[in-house]
Specification:
The structure is a homodimer. By secondary structure, the first copy, chain A, is an all-alpha fold. The first copy, chain A, folds into two domains: 54 residues, Homeodomain-like (Arc Repressor Mutant, subunit A), CATH 1.10.10.60; 150 residues, Tetracycline Repressor, domain 2 (Orthogonal Bundle), CATH 1.10.357. Chain A has ten helices and no strands. The longest helix of chain A is centred in the N-terminal third of the chain and has 28 residues. The radius of gyration of chain A is 20 Å and the shape is globular. Chain A starts with a helix and ends in an 8-residue tail after the last helix. The model of chain A has no long low-confidence stretch (mean pLDDT 90). Chains A and B meet through α6, α9 and α10 of A and α6, α9 and α10 of B. Chain A binds a DNA duplex through α1 and α3.
Chain lengths: 212, 212
DNA sequence: TCTAAAATATGACTATTAGTCATAATATAA
DNA sequence: TTATATTATGACTAATAGTCATATTTTAGA
């Protein structure tokens, strides 16, 4: 009975075709300037059909976010090297996140934009999946814990909190670059230099120490 | 000829009454769940009148953001103490920002939400005013510069960049708390503890040092 | 006090668009 | 070959931002 399987496959394919179409338009014109009719046209389907695969526009946006999160998750996990110290692994992961931000900017924005615009909304289960189980953040926590055990990372803050702090801090600077790139241009600040300098702050702190 | 002045005053008052009404509704029900008709009703005016004072819904939202920014600016400047070192002043300013986040959360969200949702939009002059002239960020840069001169703050990163990094980092953690408060509850992480721990990271960095 | 002009306010109307649903087309199974 | 199930359609509804012709109120000058 291969028919059911084929149908499931076809359904999944169609679903992905719709996401592809939405992605092309969203990435090109911005989330506010694309209508469901536009997407239907781009996907060569009728609007009603979109709603057979996604329960709302937001749900479609969420599907794009999930794609981005999967890419990021893969990038972050594939640089992990058990032979290295926790701190070294964290730095590698940081590099991977930087690469994601630079090379998959549209996905970065999809994640950031979705998070920000939905935060007023009522709870929906999916909202939490983003940060659960096999998420980048959870993996990040694990590696930090290893670093605390091997002594390469400061131990006075619980790994969970440290992960959230570092994650939010890095995302915060990326967000600034994404939102205020023009301002950085005006100030003649190079994005990459800014990111490198952030890493310095993360590693060595703010205070002026005699050492170093 | 006090008539013109009185009229200007009245115009300004009416404008503020509209912002008051919008604020009450936005803060209570969230930005997505309030219509211009709702605001007109709350302000005891007709919808058309709103458009005599604000050119769009977005413009009205922006007016709330400006209020928030003015409050923050005041809080940050009033803790400045010329007798103290740059680093001490920066820490004071950090405390002020924390207070703003905790006590004026609605304004914090107004700023954050506006920034995030408008970043796709085309340029409008106002977008830059947020971070110019007498803005909190510019003041922050000045104090950092003082700190670098008196030797209390590390000097290997230009003050402009340091300001942007620290600002974005702190905002990043606040944003996480605002967006993912529920997740922090689940992980049994206290918001205040998280913020205190962030300050530790900012001051002393991530690496495990023998000193301290 | 009266009146024309200016300033301010109104709300019915238009345009846009997310989401629905009765109907149609197509595929499956018996 | 036909009944049933699945998938697709697009005209329609509801909601709402923004407009504009009309009305009301205020001002200034005679």
């Amino acid at each position: 009975m291969g028919v059911l399987e084929r149908k499931a496959r076809e359904k999944e394919r169609r679903r992905n075709e719709i996401i592809d179409a939405a992605e092309r338009l969203f990435f090109k014109h911005g989330y506010d300037h694309v209508t469901m009719d536009d997407i239907a046209k781009e996907a060569e389907l009728s609007k009603g059909t979109l709603y057979l695969y996604f329960k709302s526009r937001e749900d479609l946006h969420y599907a794009i976010l999930i794609r981005g999160l999967e890419i990021l998750n893969r990038l972050i996990r594939e640089v992990y090297d058990a032979k290295k110290s926790g701190l070294e692994n964290i730095l590698q992961m940081g590099e991977a996140y930087i690469r994601f931000f630079r090379e998959k900017t549209d996905y970065f924005k999809a994640i950031m934009f979705f998070d920000a615009t939905r935060f007023e909304r009522v709870e929906n289960e999916s909202k939490f999946k983003i940060l659960q189980e096999d998420s980048p953040l959870v993996f990040f926590m694990e590696v930090l814990r290893q670093g605390q055990q091997d002594g390469s990372i400061k131990q006075d803050i619980p790994a969970e909190q440290l992960a959230i702090i570092l994650w939010s801090q890095v995302s915060g600077v990326f967000e600034f670059i994404a939102l205020r790139g023009k301002l950085l241009d005006m100030l003649q600040i190079d994005n990459i230099e800014l990111i490198r300098n952030q890493i310095k702050v993360l590693l060595y702190g703010l205070e002026n120490k005699q050492t170093d």
